[in-house]
Design brief:
binds manganese (II) ion, alpha/beta, globular
Length: 130
């Protein structure tokens, strides 16, 4: 079972993401701050991290930068979650080391596509359905 760490300080968004992940049969870990996220990433080694970029204290981008700077956590793909459909946000996410970017409010179908892309774990023999 794939293990996904969700970093989100907003309860409503968190509940939505957790529900979507559970529908996909993922094991879900939750962090509400960047510090919790960094420590959980170290100890639990999730397969994927969904990172809200607006967190109290350290931002999601800074947390991602730190994850990527540590060889122990660098291989874990990080997908940024941001409420802002701001111009340049995707570039900021990629610059911080995120593998992809999801805009909130989340579209369930886009969310599942991203999830399957990153949890497929490099099984490249599987033809893409699209
Ligand atoms: Mn937030």
């Amino acid at each position: 079972m794939a293990c996904v760490l969700v970093v989100e300080d907003n309860t409503i968004n968190l509940e939505l993401v957790v529900a979507l992940l559970e529908q996909e049969d993922c094991e879900v870990l939750v962090a509400e701050t960047a510090d919790e996220a960094l420590s959980l990433a170290q100890t639990a080694h999730p397969d994927l991290i969904l990172m809200d970029v607006q967190l109290p204290g350290m931002t999601g981008y800074e947390a991602t930068h730190r994850l990527k700077a540590d060889p122990a956590t660098a291989p874990i793909p990080v997908v940024a979650l941001t409420a802002q459909a701001m111009q340049g946000e995707e570039a900021r996410a990629i610059e911080a080391g995120c593998a992809a970017y999801l805009a909130k409010p989340l579209d369930a179908r886009v969310f599942r596509d991203i999830l399957r892309r990153f949890l497929r774990g490099g099984k490249r023999d599987e033809p893409d359905a699209k």
